[in-house]
Design a protein that fits this description.
The complex is a heterodimer. By secondary structure, chain A is an all-alpha fold. Chain A contains twelve helices and no strands. Chain A has helices at about 1-5, 10-20, 25-40, 45, 80-115, 115-130, 135-145, 155-175, 180-185, 190-225, 240-245, 255-285. The relative contact order of chain A is 0.15. By secondary structure, chain B is an alpha/beta fold. Chain B has two domains: about 5-90 and about 175-320, P-loop containing nucleotide triphosphate hydrolases (Rossmann fold); about 105-175, no CATH class. Chain B is built from twelve helices and twelve strands. The chains are: A mainly alpha, B alpha/beta. The interface of A and B includes residues 13, 187 and 202 of A.
């Protein structure tokens, strides 16, 4: 009893945060990613160049002080294009992640909590959704809604949703048998309250990890779509289109494609390391 | 006759499973008067927990109430709307569970869960609900209640968690408390404290209890009346006194003989009932206990009768009934 009095109450979330703070690699990666994110979001503060301004007398330059990442075939500053392009890419990925999380959580919770016929219907529809090829869907969306506006983000959102629904449903089902859910019911707590409180809080860990990895997956898919020509049209840019522009000169100006690819690589890698850091911090709880 | 608080009439419950239909409860009738405590005794699989869950209307989806009715203060629980049931649960009928390790949510503080339960039934501000929760924690014997409120489930001992669970169940001053083996997971000294606590509170507040247990010791301590269940059927039902001193059903006698006492000859092995419990998938045609009954084994004529038909409940004395063909 004396030790109980001496110690401070500690919530599972706080303990996980403490463990995460001890993971140096994950912290470093988080810092790197946040740096890229902030620099992109505040692009005008970090570059005075216009990402769309042509300079035909100054094309395919190697990195220099004036143009830290060089210039492309039309003489545009690649750093400025990467920063402004990052804005677009992050916006697209963020919307995709948000939409997929909302749908995934909503249907996953419904399916897992109520089970039975509703679960069967949602799960089968979800299987159907998962079987649609993302790129086909993206092309379809672009054709229907008009190309080059970045609307393929809805296709990415749709592609990220099924695994999240499945994960949420399985997690909810695994805790539905818990005595604390039964106890809450036996004491007359409302279903809505049980879902938004007990259920959501207890599945939060793995779901957060999944949403995190969804974001890095979205960056990759988004870049690939841009590279394949589904990206936003000029004057707007995004990372995928920059890489596509550089691809034509991969032999005589390799840095034009290598540097943007490196940025994407670093983003995805750091995000994945942060994600597994969060997973480790949360899963140690179970021991 | 006095108005019954809870009245279960001819209740039968079936479970559907891949192995077939399991008849977990068969034609069980029980009642509890206001302020009275009823114990349900039986071994694992006898249907005692199923009855408790049926009263709470918290049976799993695979279970079906095939016949019978459950009345609480004259209202039929089986015909109540989901919303009415929800407001009844926790306010009029509360339940505490076997394993206090599992019934508190690991992600929330004790305070959150107590306040949530109270606010589900009464229009109270957070502060008022907190205050009431604090008082209830103190009432169930937690001295450092202020501190406990801020804690999480895993920071408390088993006995402490069960006290918290009891406080949560009693917060809304229910008229009936269903206790599903509340002390099984606790060690003996804590068991006794918890039983005394429940007994004391019930007497003080005039609360009825439905006590599910497999221990006659617990029943003798806490309950006014007791129902013995075997294979989903009622074997014997009556006041604790008449049942303990004048048990009529061979199963009840077997159970009572199996209770260790201080006076018994330690050289002799503890009495046990031969055989294994009945299968719920393939219930016998006659008395479920007949295959294990020592009287049936001695008397083949009797055995034929017992195995062939189900003995009806008969009255041994006013308020004491039993289901056996053997008269004495």
């Amino acid at each position: 009893m004396s030790t109980e009095k001496a110690s401070k109450p500690s919530s599972p979330a706080r303990r996980a945060l403490k463990r995460f703070a001890k993971n140096r690699l994950a912290l470093f990666c988080l810092a790197v990613f946040l740096l890229i994110l902030v620099v992109c979001l505040l692009a005008p503060l970090f570059t005075s160049e216009d990402p769309a301004e042509l300079n035909l007398g100054n094309t395919k330059q190697n990195p220099s002080l004036a143009h830290p990442m060089g210039t492309d075939i039309l003489g545009r500053d690649i750093l400025a294009r990467m920063l402004y392009g990052g804005r677009t890419t992050f916006r697209i990925c963020f919307v995709a992640m948000l939409l997929s999380s909302a749908f995934g959580l909503f249907f996953g919770l419904l399916s897992g909590f109520f089970g039975g016929t509703l679960d069967q219907m949602i799960s089968r529809a979800n299987d159907g959704l998962a079987s649609i090829p993302t790129f086909l869907l993206a092309i379809f969306v672009e054709v229907v809604t008009g190309a080059g506006k970045g609307n393929y983000m809805y296709a990415i959102a749709l592609a990220l949703t099924p695994p999240l629904i499945r994960l949420t449903r399985n997690l909810v089902m695994s805790i539905m048998g818990s005595e604390y859910i039964e106890a809450a019911r036996a004491l007359g707590v409302k279903n809505s309250r049980i879902i938004s409180g007990h259920v959501l809080r207890n599945i939060a860990g793995p779901v957060i990890v999944q949403i995190f990895s969804n974001f890095s997956e979205a960056i990759l898919t988004c870049t690939i779509m841009g590279y394949l020509g589904l990206g936003v049209h000029s004057p707007r840019v995004e990372w995928g289109t920059i890489i596509k522009d550089g691809f034509g000169f991969i032999l005589n100006a390799p840095l034009q494609i290598a540097l943007p690819c490196l940025v994407v690589f670093i983003c995805v890698l750091t995000l994945n390391i942060v994600g597994s850091g969060i997973r480790d911090a949360l899963s140690e709880e179970e021991e | 006759m006095m108005q019954k608080l809870l009245e279960i009439k001819d209740l039968s419950i079936e479970f559907s499973s891949p192995k077939g239909t399991a008849r977990a409860v068969n034609d069980v009738s029980l009642s509890i008067a206001p302020g009275e405590s009823l114990g349900i005794v039986g071994e694992s699989g006898s249907g005692k927990s199923t009855i408790a869950h049926a009263v709470m209307q918290l049976l799993p989806k695979s279970a079906k109430i095939s016949s019978g009715s459950i009345f609480f203060e004259g209202r039929d629980l089986l015909r109540m709307s989901a919303a009415d049931l929800r407001s009844l649960r926790g306010r009029d009928i509360s339940m505490i569970f076997q394993d206090p390790m599992q019934c508190l949510d690991p992600s929330f503080t004790i305070a959150y869960q107590l306040v949530e339960t109270l606010q589900a039934h009464e229009k109270l501000s957070r502060d008022e609900a907190r205050k009431a929760s604090l008082q209830m924690l103190q009432r169930v014997g937690i001295h450092n209640a202020e501190d406990i409120m801020k804690r999480y489930q895993h920071e408390l001992s088993g006995g402490m968690r069960q006290r918290v669970m009891i406080a949560m169940a009693l917060l809304t001053r229910p008229r009936l408390l269903i206790a599903d083996e509340p002390t099984t997971a606790l060690d003996v000294t804590i068991q006794d404290q918890i039983l005394q606590l429940l007994k004391g509170y019930a007497r003080e507040a005039g609360m009825s209890m439905l006590f599910i247990t497999h221990s006659f010791g617990v029943v003798a301590d806490v309950c006014d009346r007791v129902a013995v269940l075997y294979g989903g059927r009622l074997c014997e039902y009556g006041s604790c006194e008449s049942l303990f001193y004048e048990a009529r059903h061979p199963y009840t006698r077997g159970l009572l003989e199996a209770v260790p006492t201080m006076e018994r000859d330690k050289a002799l092995p503890l009495h046990s009932i031969d055989g294994a419990p009945v299968s719920v998938f393939d219930p016998p045609k006659g008395c479920p206990f007949a295959p294990r009954c020592s009287r049936c084994r001695e008397d083949s004529q009797l055995a034929e009768k017992c195995l062939g038909s189900i003995p009806p409940l008969k009255e041994a004395a006013p308020g004491h009934s039993f289901a056996c063909f053997i008269e004495r």
